[in-house]
Amino acid sequence: MKKIAAITLTVIIIIILLMGVNELPAFGKEDNPANNYVAHRYIENVVEDTGALNIVTGIILDYRAFDTFGEATVLFTGIIAALIVLKKA
């Protein structure tokens, strides 16, 4: 019974994910959300807005600082959890 439930749940998740992928815009289209005005603004104004000479550094550390901090926190927490588990083994 558990095996049938697991297979059914897996199939349902696969169908949901495929439906989501089907809704993605075509790759390389000009009207993609990735090609909106924000990227152009970042490239054109990064030096004036942030003072960083490197575009990547300016975007990561100034425009997307909270997102980067969140990603670093998740990675750090994962590393600590792995070290705790490995130390107990």
Describe it.
This protein has 89 residues and is an all-alpha fold. It has one domain. The protein is 76% helix and 0% strand. It contains four helices and no strands. The protein is flat and about 60 Å long.
Sheet with most strands: none
The CA-CA distance between the termini, in Å, is: 33 Å
Helicity, as a percent range? over 70%
Mean pLDDT: 87
Shape: flat
Helix tally equals 4
What's the gyration radius in Å? 21 Å
What's the number of extended β-strand segments?
A: 0
List low-pLDDT spans.
none
User: Which sequence of SSEs, written as H and E, runs from N to C?
Assistant: HHHH
Count of distinct structural domains: 1
Structure class: mainly alpha
Strand content: under 5%
Protein name: Multicomponent Na+:H+ antiporter subunit B
InterPro entries: MrpA_C/MbhE
Organism: Paramaledivibacter caminithermalis (strain DSM 15212 / CIP 107654 / DViRD3) (Clostridium caminithermale)
Keywords: Membrane, Transmembrane, Transmembrane helix
Please outline the helices and strands.
Blueprint: H1 2-22, H2 37-50, H3 55-63, H4 65-88
Helix pairs in contact: 2-3
Defining traits:
transmembrane; MrpA_C/MbhE; 89 residues; mainly alpha; 76% helix; flat
